[in-house]
Every structure is written in structure tokens, then in C-alpha cells.
Amino acid sequence: MSAKLNVNIDHVATIREARKTIEPSIITAAVICEQAGADGITVHIRGDRRHIQDRDITLLRECVTTYLNVEMATTEEMLEIAIATKPDAVSLVPESPEEITTEGGLDVVGHETIIRAMVKKLRDAGIFVSAFVDPVITQIEMAKSLGMQQVELCTGEYADLTLGAKSAHGDGAMRAAAEIKRIHDAAVHAHGLGMIVAAGHGLTYRNVGALAAISEITEFNIGHNIISRAVFTGLYKAVEEMIEKIRQGTKG
Ligand code: PXP
Description:
This protein has helices at 10-19, 26-35, 54-63, 76-85, 112-124, 137-145, 156-161, 170-192, 208-212, 224-233, 235-251, and strands spanning 4-8, 40-44, 68-72, 89-92, 128-133, 150-154, 196-200, 217-222. By secondary structure, the chain is an alpha/beta fold. The chain has a single domain (4-251), classed as TIM Barrel (Alpha-Beta Barrel). The chain has an eight-stranded parallel beta barrel with strand order 1-2-3-4-5-6-7-8, surrounded by eight helices. α2 packs parallel to α3 (54-63). The structure holds pyridoxine-5'-phosphate (PXP). The site of pyridoxine-5'-phosphate has 19 residues, from β8 and α10.
């Protein structure tokens, strides 16, 4: 069975917020993704509200019929939003105001006490909890011991190594292969601990196949590349094409 695809639709809200207006509608975007075969919708509500707003979470909770995964930082403010809206899953991510996008995984080893308390409250509220971590064994083991049900392995490093022609030959190809192995070993380890394994960040139509072939990874969260293609092809087709890439990779 091929891995699931949750489409991250933050950038539909990025366009809307560029004009602080009502279009494009993220609800329409979510429905189209679902109709095209996506298994879920992912959004990241950031402290600075640069794209997704509080109201979006409320509306998405009402409209998403597949699976709603909300990424958030480990703050009291975000905990309250999660408890009030009850998404299917919360993914805990690191966040800093200056970053363009999430930079690397959450250091669960360094923030044990805060995270343990937040995970307990989320799970008590019936929410499935995931941690976005680098493919590093100590981080995965700590995520498990803090009560996480899932880890989402950060593929940012892999994405950088596979940008453009970098990974086509020589040293670039070797480094990309080494990073695939690191992600593979991390996925096998997390799976062995009884965790669900997801992956995401910077994945594209071109680089997702190698990771889709890792059977322990059962979910992908992909946004920027799908929304970028959708500008030219339409969202329905862009989602269908990503699902096909994941299927092909799984066969490979
Ligand atoms: N997973 C996590 C935890 C993220 O923070 C992001 C970006 O918001 C993604 C997946 C999706 O990354 P991209 O937009 O590069 O596909």
C-alpha cells in the first residue's frame, strides 16, 4: 500500500494574506485536495499568523472530512487553539519569527519538560500527537518517551541535496544517497519503537520517489511544490500527480 499524502495548503492562505482579503479560499482548496485523492490536509498556524489564521482552523475543522493535521509550536497559545478546535492530529514543530519556513526538526531532547506536558494535554483531549524531528535516533527515542504517537522526519537536508542538478552525479549523488540511508534508518528505528512514521519538508515531484520506496514511511506532508505546480495546472491535477509519484516510488 502506498503512503498517504496530506497536502499542506498554507500557501493558499499566503496568497490571501498578501491582500488581507477573502480569496483564494482555503476551504475550497481543502475540498479540491480531498476530491483529488489527498488523505488529509495539513496547515501550520504560526505565532505571527503570516498565513493561516485562527478562523481558518475553526472552518477547516468543520469542512475537512479526511484528516486535519495542524502544525504548531510548543506554546500555551497554540495548546489552547488545539484543545478548542480538536484537529485529528497536532504536529509539534520548532518556530522562530525570522525564519522563512521551518528550519529543521524540533529539539525534543532539549525541551523535554515543556513538550511532555503539552503532549499529555493534547492526548488527554483525544488528539493524535506527532513531533517533527530530524532523522536522528536520540531525537526519535526521546519523542517516543515523551508520549508521541508519530514522528515526522524532517527531509529538509535531503531536499537541499536534491535541488536542481546537484544530486545528478559525483559527490552530490553520494551525499543524497547517504541522506536517504539516514532517513531510512531513522524510519526503521521509529517503526521498531511502534511509532507511525511520516516525512516532509521540501519534497517535490522529483525527489519524493526515493523516500516513497521506504515502506516504514506511511505519510507525507507536502505543500510548497504542489501549490507551485497548481498555479499552472490547477490544484486538482497537481495533487493527483503527487499521489501518482508516491505510488510509483512505492513500487520502485
Ligand atoms: N512538514 C512540516 C513539519 C512543515 O513545517 C512543513 C512546512 O510548513 C511541511 C511538512 C511542508 O513543507 P513543504 O511546504 O516544503 O512541502
